[in-house]
Design brief:
This protein is α/β, with parallel strands linked by helices. The chain contains eleven helices and six strands. The chain has one domain: P-loop containing nucleotide triphosphate hydrolases (Rossmann fold), CATH 3.40.50.
Length: about 240
């Protein structure tokens, strides 16, 4: 089984990946996760850990081979609904979870991540220097999220729900992935994650919801609401 842990950037996708890997590790005697990380380190895939930056038809075929030989594999990605992915989902060759977050919080979180990476060998999110600059990037991600939701092919999760009701969300994810997890399995995975939680691990930044309500000025919030109004509404958040 190949599971793509997809989502908007700064949407809790790392937390989603962590939960999914922990559940699969708990339920299966062997997985392909170690082999995936080995191939990423060897530059066979372009990414880091269990995250792959670019995934095309050939890479997907390689990942499916790993899952066939070693067991379930969870790969974190940030992908649009490309035709080859839709075909693989419809054929049941892969499974996909997709997590999204209030676009205004994505703006703030991405800006935080940019600041934190400054001065490092590989600065990231260089296009998120201000709220105004970030809006166009976040809008594109949100449009991709709306497209994934409209396909009905992925198990879609809201970051809010994953934080506030993880037991319920993980039960729903397990049902979609056909994972035979018990309530005890799920509770244990949640407790173990909470014990190791820290900034920059699993839940990047501060892991708070509706940050924009207290951290944005009235003018900044107005700018965000104007630039992101359509996708905020489409994703089910309130203006």
């Amino acid at each position: 089984m190949l599971i793509l842990s997809n989502g908007m950037i700064k949407s809790g996708s790392s937390l989603m990946r962590h939960y999914t890997i922990a559940l699969v590790d708990r339920l299966f005697a062997g997985t392909g996760q170690k082999e995936l990380r080995r191939l990423v380190r060897a530059k066979h895939f372009h990414g880091s850990g269990s995250f792959i930056n670019h995934l095309g038809v050939a890479t997907l075929a390689s990942l499916l081979t790993i899952s066939d030989e070693y067991g379930p594999v969870i790969v974190k990605v940030h992908l649009k609904p490309e035709p080859f992915l839709l075909e693989a989902l419809r054929a049941g060759r892969i499974k996909m979870t997709y997590i999204h977050r209030d676009p205004r919080d994505v703006v703030l979180s991405a800006m935080d991540h940019r600041v934190r990476s400054q001065g490092t060998p590989k600065p990231v999110f260089t296009g998120y220097g201000s709220i105004e600059e970030s809006i166009s990037h976040v809008h594109l991600m949100c449009k991709a999220a709306c497209e994934w939701i409209s396909t009905g092919l992925a198990c879609v999760v809201r970051y809010d729900n994953l934080l506030l009701a993880p037991e319920k969300e993980l039960s729903r994810i397990c049902a979609y992935l056909n994972l035979p997890a018990s309530e005890t399995d799920i509770e244990q995975v949640i407790q173990e994650e909470r014990q190791i939680r820290q900034p920059g691990k699993n839940q990047f930044n501060i892991g708070q919801l509706t940050r924009f309500q207290t951290e944005m000025s009235e003018e900044q919030l107005k700018t965000c609401n104007q630039g992101l109004r359509d996708v905020i509404v489409q994703l089910g958040y309130s203006i």
